[in-house]
Each structure stands twice: as C-alpha cells, then as structure tokens.
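Example (one chain per record):
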Amino acid sequence: MPDESALQPLTPRAECTIDGVYYTTLFEAEGRMSVTEEPGAVVVTTEGRLRSSTGAAAGVTYRLTHRFFGDHVTKEWTFVSPHPQVIRLVEPFVRDPDLVVAQTAPQRVRLGFGGDKAWAFAVERAPTGNTLTCNEDATPYWSPFPGVNGRPVIVTLTTTPGQPTTVETSFGPDPVSRKP
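Predicted structure:
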C-alpha cells in the first residue's frame, strides 16, 4: 500500500487549527448523541469537543443537529470557544466526471449533471463574514478503499468569544431547477 499521507477524509466535519495543532469532529470519541422526532423530521443531535489526533480536547465545543426530512437534510452547527476561532465546515460530495459543481450565489452551491434537476447546498443562517466556497483543490479528496473521489464544499466562519456561534446549512433539490 503506497503512503497516501496527503489524502483528506471524505467524511463531513468541522475543523480548526490552534497553535499549529489540527482539531476536528472526526477525533471526537466522547460525544453524546440523541435521536428524537419533530413533525416531518427525524432529529439527530451530537454534542462534543473538537479534538486532536491524540484525543486532546480543544477549547471549542460543538452541537450538531441533523434534521432529516423526506427530500432534504439540514445541519445546524453551534460552536462555543473562549477565543475568536476560525472554523471550517467541510462537506465532501462524491465527484463524478459529469458532475457540475457551481457557486450560484454567495451562500449557495448547485450540484447537477447538466439537466433540469439538480441539488443545492446552501447556508441558510450564519454569522456575518462567513464564506462558502466550492473551488478548493479536490485532488487530495479521494479514498483508495473503496475507490471514491470527493469534491469539497466549505463553509468558513469565525466564532464570537464565549458566545454560541450558529451556522445552518441545507442540502436538497435545488428549487431554482425544479420544473412544474
């Protein structure tokens, strides 16, 4: 097996770097999860801390609430940090040679195959100054087992010290591309 140390995980995640140490939700082994129902949705909430690869906790806590509806999903992230902290929310989508990924508005990315139907990833609510991008180099976003390539869509935000900082995203059919 060749050394592929430059690969990025294909798992959605929150991540940050503090004093040169990488912290992410991927290393959280002590998070708490609950599942409930709301009218029309199943709700899965996870609470924990961003952690390093050694399991050390950052001073950043998070609550991630997924709401699964019949045709779309929303994610509500809430972070609390004692200091202003730049956080990246990374959402890798499976890359297909025919998949067209385009930023159609400052807070919306369209994913489609050139036809009338497409999907949209959108930032529905976020702090001022957040950015949404879909043009990061996709080269390191792949996995040898199984052989899958990804394309990242990234939301970048800065927390307000000591205060909850919330971002809500949605992924579902693009309302602009729907035909009556």
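Caption: The chain is about 0% helix and 55% strand.
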